[in-house]
Write a structure and sequence with these properties.
With 221 residues, the chain is α+β, with helices and mostly antiparallel strands. Helix content is 35%, strand content 15%. It has a 4-stranded mixed sheet.
């Protein structure tokens, strides 16, 4: 019979956190100067700055969360606040109200932030998106079914895959799969419907990020 292992329990002089990865997210916010991008275009007279709204919600998305209530976990986490450079952490109602009120006007701003991130230089070199052996840079465009069955979310409908949900339009640059756009669309929308709008948005961004010739690959239905 083996005796139980004897464990030594100590109180550490520092706090542990489950969101250590947010330190890297905060570094990217600093590199692109997110407050200058957001607050210059969308200032507020009082309350939580819009850049803090952006930082808080992007931090949730980086953790695989999208519910507004999840931001409450950040409010009491000093490590998260300092890592992200937050002046204030919004409450769930504030986050919800600001996103509802400003989402449409922030649409183009989100694309600008993504372009800034993908245009960063790492150790003096641009991001290696990944060329094909033939020397072309692939730009992959496709839609896919996002299952949101058993929910009553706005836009949920019967998709071509036979499930209730959404039919997002995705654009990826390079063989390493860098996402240029992920446009959420109603589940009942046909894959080709309004796709020219996505082309108009994605192609100029792709051309600005790489000097290589593009090979646009569109998945067939």
């Amino acid at each position: 019979m083996t005796d139980p292992t004897e464990f030594i329990i100590k109180k550490l002089p520092y706090n542990l956190t489950s969101v250590a990865g947010l330190a890297l997210v905060g570094k990217y916010f600093k590199r692109i100067n997110l407050p200058a991008l957001v607050d210059t275009a969308f200032p507020v007279r009082s309350g939580v700055a819009n850049s803090d709204i952006f930082k808080s919600y992007l931090a949730l998305l980086c953790q695989g969360k999208n519910a507004f209530d999840a931001v409450e976990a950040l409010r009491g986490d000093d490590f998260a606040r300092r890592s992200l450079g937050l002046g204030a952490v919004p409450s769930a109602p504030t986050l919800r109200q600001r996103m509802d009120a400003c989402a449409s006007s922030w649409f183009e701003l989100a694309a600008r932030i993504n372009k800034q991130l993908l245009g960063l230089r790492i150790s003096g070199s641009p991001i290696a998106f990944g060329l094909l052996p033939c020397g072309y840079m692939p730009l992959d465009l496709d839609t896919f079914a996002m299952d949101n069955g058993q929910t009553r979310k706005e836009g949920v409908g019967r998709t071509y895959a036979g499930v209730d949900g959404y039919c997002p339009f995705a654009a990826y640059l390079g063989t390493n799969g860098y996402c240029l756009e992920l446009a959420l669309r109603p589940g009942t929308q046909h894959s080709a419907s309004e796709s020219e709008y996505n082309f108009e948005r994605v192609l100029p961004m792709a051309c600005s990020l790489t000097p290589a010739s593009l090979l646009v690959r569109v998945a067939a239905d």
